[in-house]
Amino acid sequence: MSDIGRPLPNPNELDTGAFWQATKNGELGYQRCDDCNTVVFYPRRHCTGCLGSRLSWHVASGNASLYSFSVVRQSYHPFFRGRVPYAVAWVDLDEGPRLLTNIVGVKDPGKDLHIGQRLVLEWERHDALAIPLFRPA
Amino acid sequence: MAAAQRDAAIVGIHEYPSRDVEGHVSPLQIKAESAAKALADAGLGWRDVDAIYDAGDGGGMSGLTIAEYFGLHPRVIDTTNVGGSSYELHAAHAKRHIAAGKARVALLTYGSTAHSNAMAIGVGDRGGPGAHPVDNMESFVGMTLVSNYAMVARRHMFQYGTTSEQLAEISVATRLHAMRNPEAVAAMKALEFLDVRETTIDDVVRSRMIADPLHLLECCMISDGGGAVVIAAPEVARDCAKTPVWLLGAGEAAKYPENGGDITVSAAAQSGPAAFGEAGVTPQEIDIAMIYDSFSITVLTILEDLGFCAKGEAGAWVTGGRLRFDRPKDGPALNTDGGGLSSNHPGMRGIFLLIEAARQLRGESCSQVPEAKLAVAHGNGGMLGSRHCAGTVILGRD
Question: Considering the entire predicted model, what is its pTM?
Answer without folding.
Answer: 0.97
